[in-house]
Amino acid sequence: xxxxxxxxxxxxxxxxxxxxxxxxxxxxxxxxxxxxxxxxxxxxxxxxxxxxxxxxxxxxxxxxxxxxxxxxxxxxxxxxxxxxxxxxxxxxxxxxxxxxxxxxxxxxxxxxxxxxxxxxxxxxxxxxxxxxxxxxxxxxxxxxxxxxxxxxxxxxxxxxxxxxxxxxxxxxxxxxxxxxxxxxxxxxxxxxxxxxxxxxxxxxxxxxxxxxxxxxxxxxxxxxxxxxxxxxxxxxxxxxxxxxxxxxxxxxxxxxxxxxxxxxxxxxxxxxxxxxxxxxxxxxxxxxxxxxxxxxxxxxxxxxxxxxxxxxxxxxxxxxxxxxxxxxxxxxxxxxxxxxxxxxxxxxxxxxxxxxxxxxxxxxxxxxxxxxxxxxxxxxxxxxxxxxxxxxxxxxxxxxxxxxxxxxxxxxxxxxxxxxxxxxxxxxxxxxxxxxxxxxxxxxxxxxxxxxxxxxxxxxxxx
Length: 463
Known about the structure:
single chain, alpha/beta, Rossmann fold, 2 domains, eight-stranded mixed beta sheet, seven-stranded mixed beta sheet, 16 helices, 15 strands, about 40% helix, elongated
């Protein structure tokens, strides 16, 4: 490490600081923190940093988000404890928001990046948002600063893209600042719990000093502890591998579910019993895979690298086929009673990708509604999380309003807790309504006379 760094006492990336000295400086706010991105994962992270350090600037390009935060209001919905934490942090002047990333970069010693990495229509990771933030940080980066990459990116992004750009823009050399990848491991609806220690934090730096300092910082935030890994690329791979594992495992469960009718068994029961063997952990089948993570992370390996990934590609194909499989089961059920999709009225229950969250990205309901609409079906949707369903090829109605419709079919995609009050056996007096349960969430005891018209993905017909 250069003398310029070793002699510094005001930077966090500094071998002069012992772990104890770093802990003290971090928790007392001596090292100002800027968090870039105040979305549904960024705001909870900024609030936790503010709670620990008392000296955080949150950065977002959306003026309405910045105004809300500076007023002490939380724009992220359904995150237990977050509204009160944001309000308290702002009131204590521990958290302030700005739309000026370069000004925030000039003021900060620790830079935390948590911005989205979307996928293009060609399934290529779009790193343009990250590039912009890195450019802004570079303009304010000083010797001794530390950059923490929390967002999920393809492996080698930090080494090959982030660090060279920071060097070019800042005029600093690689040994004058630190960079560590510390991927978020957070789920909607439990962000504060996850950040504070539901799982260990993973950190991996571009050098040993970056890893050490990141470990000290996150050890003050995460009660479960920190797992340091060999380097930044390994840390990036950890997060991507977590998502890829789930996508491939779900694809296995979904493919097994397609054998249900031919085998004449409840595949879900077979999976549950198979999982009592300690080396087996098959996930649950369903109507598809949604969210901003699992459907996209495989492309962080498939697209940027020359190595073939036939398993990842196949898994994506299987999971993407499940909305079509779901609609086909509905079509078969209608056909038994002489009806077609073109003359049917169908209700899609649950439009978000997961119960209790507002996120609709890649939700199976999007593709299911689109397929039904293209077939000429009259499609309605119910979701207690949503006030609007403009992205869906259906008409949004209330849960109470579904009782006013004469329904030929119902597809249960996302089992929100509110659906537990539905009286399935009273929906249609002539027992002609076909129900496709995508998540095995309808209790048999609630079916009564409706039992013969329900098909569960992976379970078959309820008889």
